[in-house]
Amino acid sequence: MRMETIYDIQQLLKKYGIIVYIGDRIADLELMEEEVKELYRSQLIEKKDFEMAIMLLRHEIRMLKKI
Q: Residue 18: in which H helix or E strand, if any?
């Protein structure tokens, strides 16, 4: 699966029945990071997808915290 945007990560999570919406964008992203980690620990996603998803999520979180 291609991982280029937060939307792509949402689609990956959705594939496993995981929909994250707390209402706070940073909290949503942090929870998505935890869910991606759990999918990787459970060996449901490949290492390259895991690494790209984590990188994208952390970048987005950093950008939002700068605002």
A: none
Domain ranges of the chain: 6-66
Superfamily, domain 6-66: YqgQ-like (1.10.287.760)
Inter-residue contact 9 to 3 (CB < 8 Å): yes
Contact 40, 7 (CB under 8 A): no
The pLDDT of residue 53 is 98
Q: How far is CA 67 from the centre of its chain?
A: 20
What predicted TM-score, i.e. pTM, was given to this entire model?
0.93
Q: CA distances (Å), 38 to each of 1, 52, 63, 65, 66, in order?
A: 17, 15, 24, 24, 27
Q: What are phi and psi of 20, to 5 degrees?
A: -110, 120
